[in-house]
Write a structure and sequence with these properties.
Elements: H1 3-20, E1 22-25, E2 31-36, H2 42-79, H3 94-99, H4 106-119, E3 126-129, H5 130-137, H6 173-176, E4 179-181, E5 188-192, E6 215-219, E7 222-231, H7 232-237, H8 240-266, H9 287-295, E8 304-308, H10 309-316, E9 329-331, E10 335-338, E11 343-347, E12 356-359, E13 364-377, E14 386-399, E15 405-408
Parallel strand pairs: 4-13, 8-11
Antiparallel strand pairs: 1-2, 3-13, 5-6, 7-14, 8-12, 9-10, 10-11, 12-15, 13-14
Length: 415
């Protein structure tokens, strides 16, 4: 039995002994701080005491044996040095984890195996939860898409700036207010139903069945990933902070793919017919169109618009009338407000260039299985001395209730 198990077993016996003890009363019958075991419980107490004494002897012997073994190991390592065994007292080494993601050991392997077991996920690489990613790397750290090994080939001492800059598109899913389900296991089902109306039949008249049953949408885990190729030298010589920033930038890149998946899902919604000009012919938006569009939504109280950058920019140039100086959209270059008071956002990932969508985006669900998977492939580019790093997340997107949205697919601001 392991030392920790012996100590745990002894503590259980001590707890049992403690439960038999009662306060000793003073001459007035009040409880004192002193405690003792009643006479009728003495046999059980003595039995437990004997077991505790036996366990104490075993614990003392095990500690002595462990100390001797420690001395033997230290002598052996002095005579024959070997790599140290990693324990949870060691600091997690992200640089080592990236370089050895295909053959993890030590603390890095312990962390990955524990995450795989908890999430029910099989992986040949390193698995980290989002919390671990944020604790290890920091959510604001960023990195370049790739690392050039020549930057580290110079023997002249160089100070490495780890806060590399990327000017790029940032996702809008959080601003739209999508619902994110995190830490999922297996397939997740979403249910919805058409609206129903209560009945008020006359006395003795039977209720009629609504004739509706819930429909369902499914979120299934799929790997959404980022990949880049690095030289072995760059991975070996770059600082841990840069390795951390690379991973964080990969996660941000995957978030962009997630927005693209969301726009594809929204693009499958049935388009509203006759939205512009009363027909499905492509046409530019006018003031009346937004009012009609918003009137087609069942519940506009939490609605927002999303469209592509071309339509958004075009709406910023369309005057509401000739006198007020107002436009269909006012605000920033990527997010603003329509003249009817609705928030509107532009995205670079809308697949249909003539789409504009209005809806309650809390009905757009993102399924997130809560892990980041890091895979190391040293074989594919071995002849060129390069290592392929792949970073995945398990994600899926679904619109739970299509009735929460209206979509037009014939908007052309140049028409």
């Amino acid at each position: 039995m392991e030392l920790k198990d012996l100590i745990h077993k002894r503590d259980e016996k001590l707890d049992a002994m403690d439960a038999l003890m009662v306060p000793v009363k003073d001459k007035d019958g009040n409880d004192t701080e002193q405690r003792s075991c009643p006479e009728d419980k003495q046999p059980e107490w003595r039995t437990l005491k004997g077991e505790v004494d036996k366990l104490n002897r075993q614990i003392a012997q095990r500690k002595e044996e462990d100390e001797v073994q420690k001395q033997i190991t230290e002598r052996s390592m002095r005579n024959n040095p070997a790599p140290a065994v990693h324990t949870r007292e060691h600091k997690f080494d992200i640089s080592k984890a990236i370089r050895q993601a295909d053959k993890l050991d030590g603390l890095e392997k312990e962390v990955s195996d524990e995450n795989a077991s908890k999430r029910g996920i099989s992986s040949n690489g390193l698995l980290l939860t989002y919390r671990q990613v944020n604790e290890l790397f920091g959510v604001e750290k960023r990195a370049a898409v790739s690392v050039d090994s020549t930057a580290y080939a110079n023997i002249t001492p160089t100070v490495l700036d780890n806060t590399l800059s990327i000017i790029d598109y940032q996702t809008i899913l959080e601003k739209l207010g999508v619902t994110r389900l995190t830490g999922l296991r297996g397939v997740h089902q979403l249910h919805y139903s058409d609206p129903q109306t209560g009945q008020n039949p006359a006395e003795s008249v039977a209720f009629t069945a609504a004739g509706q049953s819930p429909s369902k949408k499914t979120l299934s885990p799929s790997r959404v990933g980022w990949m880049d190729v690095f030289t072995k030298e760059s991975l070996a010589l770059a600082s841990p902070e840069l390795h951390q920033a690379i991973i964080m930038d990969a996660v941000k890149t995957i978030n962009k793919k997630l927005e693209a998946m969301a726009m594809v899902e929204l693009g499958t919604l049935t388009a509203k017919t006759g939205y512009v000009g009363g027909t499905d012919t492509d046409a530019a938006l006018a003031r009346v169109n937004l009012t009609e569009f918003e009137g087609a939504l069942k519940d506009p109280s939490n609605a927002k618009y999303v469209t592509n950058r071309v339509i958004y920019s075009g709406m910023r140039d369309v005057k509401v009338d000739t006198g007020s100086g107002r436009f269909l959209v006012e605000g920033k270059a990527a997010e603003g407000q329509t003249h009817t008071g609705m928030p509107i956002f532009s995205t670079g990932f809308m697949t249909n260039t003539k789409d504009i969508i209005l809806g309650d985006f809390s009905e757009l669900f993102v399924g997130d299985w809560g892990v980041v998977e890091i895979l190391n492939n040293p074989y594919t580019y071995d002849e060129t001395g390069q290592i392929k790093i792949t970073i995945n997340q398990l994600l899926d997107v679904a619109v739970r209730n299509p009735a929460a949205f209206v979509r037009a697919s014939n908007v052309d601001m140049t028409a």
